[in-house]
Amino acid sequence: NAGVTQTPKFQVLKTGQSMTLQCAQDMNHEYMSWYRQDPGMGLRLIHYSVGAGITDQGEVPNGYNVSRSTTEDFPLRLLSAAPSQTSVYFCASSSQAGVSYEQYFGPGTRLTVT
Amino acid sequence: AQRVTQPEKLLSVFKGAPVELKCNYSYSGSPELFWYVQHSRQRLQLLLRHISRESIKGFTADLNKGETSFHLKKPFAQEEDSAMYYCALGGSNYKLTFGKGTLLTVNP
After folding, report:
1. What is the radius of gyration, based on Cα positions, of chain B?
2. Pick from B6, B15, B32, B42: CA 20 to 30 A from residue B104's CA?
3. Cβ contacts (< 8 Å) between B101 and chain A: which residues?
4. What b/e readout covers B77-90, taking b as 16+ CB neighbours within 10 angstroms?
5. Closest residue to B94, CB basis, from A44, A48, A90
């Protein structure tokens, strides 16, 4: 199993551009989530999904959209990039729709917005 | 609201010394607590969770509900323990809340 994969690894955007960060898992996990990691701020939850067709907002959802059309994929869309969205983005999944279970993280996408 | 506090941003110890990374939480329900570790430029991985009460790589953590703490301890630190450590709290609403992390450096 590849586990949780994320593409791209690195991305540079100009302010106002849009893009989609891809996340996929091959473990048939129901629960998937997106975090951003910023120095001194830890990881903050952006959006999460408890199953295909179901998504909800986390702590810092503004400026981001998600959808979950399949169990395997959970893309994160930046609608109009801003310098404040410069961060490292991690996708995670777990086997059950609850935080009691181990979260498996992807390798991260390092995004710079100029 | 659920909150996790890791009071130390940085912690530096010598190899062979004991280490304790502090974690305090705020949550009105029954908490589920975890420690995650992230080595340099690698993905986060679960280190341990309070419900399993296990020791992983010599690390232990005990949930103290009276003090609302879940401190991570290791009696003899190794250089390979150098990493960022995150305490995390799982609540009833599918949201996992992370602390801001503690960067542990173990010096030779």
Report:
1. 13
2. B32
3. 42
4. beeebbbbbbbbbb
5. A48
Question: Would you say residue B49 has pLDDT above 90?
Answer: no
A99 pLDDT tier (thresholds 50, 70, 90): low
Interface test with B, best of A29, A43, A89 (most B CBs within 10 A): A43
Instruction: Tell which phi-psi region holds residue A107, choosing left (phi > 0), alpha (psi between -120 and 50) or beta.
Output: alpha
Taking residue B100's Cβ as centre, other Cβ atoms within 10 Å add up to 19
Question: Is B31 in CB contact (< 8 Å) with chain A?
Answer: no
Task: Take residue B68 and report the two structure tokens written for it.
Answer: 């609302």
Q: Which of A60-74, A96-110, B13-27, B30-44 has the lowest mean pLDDT?
A: A96-110
Q: Which two tokens stand for residue B59?
A: 């690390």
Q: What is the pLDDT of residues A25-74, one digit of tens each?
A: 999 999 999 999 998 888 999 999 989 999 999 989 999 999 999 999 99
* Omega within 30 of 0 (cis) for the link into A8: yes
Confirm if B61 and B35 have CB atoms less than 8 A apart. Answer: yes
Calculate the CA dihedral of residues B33, B61, B98, A29 and round it to 10 degrees: -60
